[in-house]
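Sorry to interrupt, but I need a hand with the structure work. Can you supply me with one protein entry, sequence and fold together? No commentary is needed, just the two lines. Leave the record below and I will have a look.
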Amino acid sequence: MALSFELLTTDGGARRGRVTTAHGTIETPVFMPVGTVGTVKAMKTDTLANDLGAQIILGNTYHLFLRPGHEIVEKLGGLHKFMNFKGPILTDSGGFQVFSLKDLRKLTEEGVTFKSPIDGAMHHITPEFSTQIQHALDATITMAFDECTPYPATHEVAAESMRLSMRWAARSREAFVAREGYGQFGIQQGSLFEDLRRESAEKLTDIGFEGYAIGGLAVGESTEDLHEAIPMAASFLPADKPRYLMGVGYPSDMVKAVLNGVDMFDCVLPTRNARNGMAFVRSAEDGGVIKIGHAAHRLADEPLDATCGCEVCRNYSRGYLHHLRKSEEILGHMLMTHHNLAHYLGVMRELREAIEAGRAAAFAAEILPQIR
């Protein structure tokens, strides 16, 4: 039996669900820390699972294929054993990364040929091969291989791109090896066009997947367009399956998307911005972020966020974190990353509790003015 999804309750458009997998259960809505190359940067996996409560993390097919190679990961026991994370792992198919290569790739009906940015070697990935790589990695949730539609795109270009992705989705599904507690998600495309998003969802539903993702957003469109597209795109996806919004975004983006029926999220912002000295906090005065390198924090004895109970906010001052930033100490990256992930995961946990209590809209009204 494949992984399963149970919709526990709803509150307006917000959904509280549970995904049961071979590697444990996932309480939704959920944020997935990004562990692109088999590591969530600057974080130990036991800290992620035990201290921060991360239920599922994301790995990337493209990057792990290039280095160390999926065969090596498979020989060393699969990605869970390789990186010592016992919970579910979702692997992005690599479509977005190949899309981002631009001049280093050539796309055909068969797949994508691209030049490795690591060593210049030429590679060819098809929907079937992407699925096989993810099988070798032992991904709990495999993503269908797709083309991320460029932005901006005309209706004609978006339609052609989406339909190619739908043909690739069918081939990805055919190549997927069903196993108990495992699943595969199809990826909806169609840019900002309602008719294309509807057509894409219908084609994916006809193929049949364990879950459905909204792809092709957060690729350059305005914030206004993003938040108009999310509820439109989500409305076409099956209500009895998990809905995953790929690559989005700021905490406020996720809160708004949850209110519109999205269940799963991933984004590099909490980890990437931590390495750049930015902490996410609950503070309307600060606009939801603190740049710890600013001189204003040099003598600050208070925590990053007085409302946060994470280890960093309990034990370290802004002044110390400022010092680590200016000294370019690795510990600074670790502590800032820990806090940012605690912030993201905490917002999701409180959203789950608010939906259960029937106050999702009230919680959103309270928290949105405080967060980025």
Remarks:
- The longest helix spans residues 330-356.
- The chain has two domains: 4-267, 274-370.
- The chain has a mean pLDDT of 96.
